[in-house]
What does this fold into?
Amino acid sequence: MSKYDCLKLENQLCFPLYACAKAVTRHYKPLLDEFDLTYTQYITMMVMWEKKSASVKEIGECLYLDSGTLTPLINKLESKGYIEKHRSDDDARGVVVTITEAGKKLRDKMVKVPTAMGGCVALSEEEAGELYTLLYKILNHFDEIDAE
Amino acid sequence: MSKYDCLKLENQLCFPLYACAKAVTRHYKPLLDEFDLTYTQYITMMVMWEKKSASVKEIGECLYLDSGTLTPLINKLESKGYIEKHRSDDDARGVVVTITEAGKKLRDKMVKVPTAMGGCVALSEEEAGELYTLLYKILNHFDEIDAE
DNA sequence: TAAAAATAAATTGCATACAATTTAATTGCA
DNA sequence: TGCAATTAAATTGTATGCAATTTATTTTTA
It folds into this structure.
């Protein structure tokens, strides 16, 4: 019982969160290498599969990423042929990102990825649900703080 | 109900994990800026506060980091005066990192950080415990997989 | 309506992460 | 013993992340 206990690694909640997130993306790598995508590129494609078309700002809001991360990432996805960029007609400051046919086809090939990854995580359906709820509770609270 | 549902961002467990870990380290930043430490430097100091002395390899095992990340990070902590590096007597391949007096003093100043951060996370004691358990369940399972 | 404020991307700079390679030293075994 | 295999750090290269600044454009407002 020391006043320093709060600074012990084993008493942190943030550390397993940090370590777990890294472990997950690390274990995604071999699955995604097959498609020549990084994890961040993969979740960006998830946004594009759902939206078909979105501004950099909108993608950033979905993924909690800013233009500093997204601009080079989107350029890479464009050079791979999965998306296209063009200036917005409505607002010349904005860039609209649109999914290509190749990008849509990629979706069919990648449907097997989540199942393959799910096998790694080893939580029951119920535990996964609990974790999901707790993580979004934290995320939503941060959103509220940041909105101020 | 589409076969693509598994590729929706909202159905991912890994994404909130990834986003949450980033949000947490982002919210640590203003607290750690005061001490001129990054989050990774902070958790490295946690290991040093507990162990007083450890090899780069041991630190890496605690934090799930490799020498590619730790070598430059440890050099920075050394230049700040919080730790010292020297070759191991037992094994000249190894480097032993030791905490300095300044490093020990830093601990006293930083005891308030975990409380300040805890206020941000907004989970009950019980929820925090659940999350902790679930995260280590995933981490431990990855450790088992990786040990093979 | 013209200047000020705000906004969207891009750019710059710094700090991770981590795979892969290299270097130096140690182990293990033939 | 002597060399092959292993190991610990360091190094190299690529890809984030994100704060801060810059540029171009749009909105607000005096």
Observations:
- Helices of chain B lie at 14-33, 39-51, 56-63, 67-79, 101-110, 112-121, 125-147.
- Residues 16 and 22 of chain B are 10 Å apart (CA to CA).
